[in-house]
Write a structure and sequence with these properties.
By secondary structure, this protein is of the alpha+beta class. It has two helices and five strands, in the order αβββαββ.
């Protein structure tokens, strides 16, 4: 009886291992395909960016649009520091600049 149980477990393990190998191969193949498609998509977006710049305007059709979004600066504030400041000295909002953070936001291309 013990031999049958061991043999059954080995067959189950083999079936599981085979399915794992199939899925790993599938994921690897999908990853390769995705990388290829992303490279093609990046090339198409770069050409689209250049064409929109040449056109000098955004483009749209019945389904959506393609537009250039210019580079900009994003400003944010540390909310805990702001809260502390407002509680301690609510009349001096000029101090907000001391807690100001800025980060660059890359220009992008948006397609809908």
């Amino acid at each position: 009886m013990q031999i049958i149980q061991v043999a059954t477990r080995e067959r189950e393990t083999a079936v599981i291992d085979n399915r794992i190998a199939e899925l790993v191969d599938m994921v690897r193949a999908h990853r390769e395909r995705i990388a290829t498609l992303e490279a093609k998509n990046d090339a198409a977006k770069e050409e689209l960016r250049q064409l929109l710049e040449l056109r000098g305007d955004n483009w749209s059709d019945d389904e959506g649009y393609a537009r250039l979004i210019p580079e900009s600066t994003r400003t944010s504030y540390e909310s805990k520091a702001l809260d502390d400041l407002i509680i301690r000295d609510p009349l001096h909002y000029g101090w907000l600049k001391d807690f100001r953070k800025q980060s660059m936001v890359r220009g992008s291309l948006q397609v809908k």
